[in-house]
């Protein structure tokens, strides 16, 4: 699969679609954590935790580092920048459309029903 901005967004939104993965993101947003630390509060087995973390890594949200036998995950500093920019652009376009509508409504004379 070609790595395009759209596929990156698709991977990120897929990664964010699971409540366990969102919980890992919340935990990692407070600082790096080892796999066992991430697995402790989760009600899933370690292999499932590793699969979830792999999806987060493929989604560009987290990165991992292995030192000895311990794999530690941390948030990418710019993990949500592209999506945040994309959302900001959509919000701006929506606001512009509403502004144009408000101007048009203000310029349109009101008809009186009698």
TrEMBL record:
Entry coiled-coil feature ranges: none
Gene Ontology MF term list: DNA-binding transcription factor activity
HTH arsR-type domain location: 1-95
Matches recorded under CDD domains: HTH_ARSR
Family matches, as InterPro entries: ArsR-like_HTH, HTH_ArsR_DNA-bd_dom, WH-like_DNA-bd_sf, WH_DNA-bd_sf
Origin superkingdom: Bacteria
Gene3D superfamilies listed in its UniProt record: Winged helix-like DNA-binding domain superfamily/Winged helix DNA-binding domain (1.10.10.10)
Signal peptide (from-to): none
Protein name (Swiss-Prot/TrEMBL): Metalloregulator ArsR/SmtB family transcription factor
Species whose genome carries this gene: Ensifer canadensis
């Amino acid at each position: 699969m070609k790595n395009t901005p759209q596929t990156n967004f698709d991977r990120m939104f897929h990664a964010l679609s699971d409540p366990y993965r969102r919980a890992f993101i919340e935990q990692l947003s407070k600082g790096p954590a080892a796999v066992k630390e991430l697995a402790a509060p989760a009600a899933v087995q370690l292999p499932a935790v590793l699969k979830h973390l792999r999806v987060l890594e493929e989604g560009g949200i987290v990165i991992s580092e292995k030192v000895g036998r311990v794999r530690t995950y941390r948030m990418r500093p710019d993990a949500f920048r592209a999506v945040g920019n994309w959302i900001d652009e959509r919000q701006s376009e929506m606001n512009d459309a509403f502004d144009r509508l408000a101007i048009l409504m203000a310029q349109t004379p009101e008809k009186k029903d009698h």
